[in-house]
Write a structure and sequence with these properties.
Two copies of one chain form a homodimer. By secondary structure, the first copy, chain A, is of the alpha/beta class. The first copy, chain A, is built from ten helices and seven strands. A seven-stranded parallel beta sheet of chain A has the order 3-2-1-6-4-7-5.
């Protein structure tokens, strides 16, 4: 069996300042089935602490530390910078996340790929970006405000795995009630409505049609129809 | 110009414990152009503090507080629960995020829609879920671990806006009953069932949830809901 393509993705956090964000990125990676987290020049003390915590997620425990971006991406064949801010002058081709993810998924079939995420405050520097083949942007409605680091990682990994899923997420439609059952419900409902005075004898022919159509529109499942029948039976018993 | 469909989405956080998560949800909403944040029973002190902080994002400042889920979704016509954990026994139809987002985008063209997110520790309770028409799940690779709250919100809003540029084919769906009307039907049906002896006092808590879910599954149109209310009113009048 070939190795899982997701094992070839490196999530590279460049100079992250907040250990909570490193933890959040690790958690999103675990959620979506990625394992290789690399951190370049983190705020030292906090990173060490977070990494060695007893309850640290496996992805965080296995995180690798580097002092330069060059080292962190040395084994990768495609290096992509991420950005969510729009106004910056960029010297790289820029792709929206969705087409970017298509390319990345394809490359992960055979090659290691890195996605770089910049620090919370400054994003990726021009020097960081110089290691990248191109950039991806999460298209937001508010280009004046960058995304939270952990959320940006989560959204990227979601998009990377979104279309990779087997189509059959098995939506079981519940089995519907038969026409016979719907009619039984209609008849009992009509008697209930007559006994409670909702239907006047004079108008009852058209009321019957209306009620019958209403019951069909409910589109009851087999299970729900049994419940509704039981309810009506009891109400009728009381009204009689 | 018609109001922005995104203004019709309510992001409802139920019993969030960590103010950082409320802030993260608000930030993701701002990033993706959503504004209506509702919080049910937050951890009081922290929420008040976060909300009143000078640097709080506009979405957070405008967040509304409620004491019950019913109140928080009363003006909504479609109520959806979110879950990222797979092993739980569910009584609702479950949709993957992508098809779910298609439905939600369409409904937002005309109606207010709520998405509920549970507390960090316990997710949504059965009682919370009983207010929902159906559930959406972010499909992850690790169904044993739930997603971080702020990341789950970010991924949902990303997916909601991802394909938004292609306008959905406008098919005329009948207008649906609001959550307030569905709840009114539920309350009257429960009284009917109690008065007719269908519900025993001992089991009535779980019966209440079951009945609430049943009413949501009927997915009544606005017109039908008025008819059903009229029927129940008359039956109740007779039973009293």
């Amino acid at each position: 069996m070939p190795p899982n393509p997701r094992s070839r993705l490196r999530v590279v956090l460049v100079a992250p300042r907040n250990p909570l964000n490193i933890g959040a990125a690790a958690r999103a990676m675990y959620n979506f089935g990625f394992a290789s987290l690399r951190v370049v020049n983190p705020y030292e003390v906090a990173f060490r602490e977070a990494k060695s915590a007893v309850r640290a997620a496996p992805v965080l425990k296995a995180a690798e530390e580097f002092t330069t971006v060059a080292d962190a991406v040395a084994d990768c064949y495609l290096v992509i910078g991420s950005t969510s801010v729009g106004h910056r002058e960029l010297h790289h081709p820029l792709r929206a996340l969705e087409p970017a993810a298509r390319i990345i998924r394809k490359r992960l079939q055979s090659d290691a790929v890195a996605i770089l995420f910049g620090s919370e405050k400054f994003g990726l520097s021009n020097d960081d970006l110089s290691h990248c083949h191109w950039l991806l942007r999460i298209e937001t409605a508010a280009p004046d405000q960058s995304m939270n680091l952990g959320q940006a990682v989560a959204v990227c990994l979601y998009e990377l795995t979104r279309a990779a899923r087997r189509p059959a997420a098995a939506r079981r439609e519940p089995k519907h009630a038969s026409a016979a059952i719907n009619e039984q419900i209609t008849v009992m409902l009509l008697e209930t409505l007559e006994r409670s005075g909702y239907i006047k004898p004079l108008t009852s022919a058209s009321s019957e049609d209306k009620t019958r159509r209403l019951v069909r529109r409910l589109n009851l499942s087999q299970r729900d129809s049994a419940v509704v029948l039981g309810m009506l039976r009891q109400i009728l018993w009381k009204l009689r």
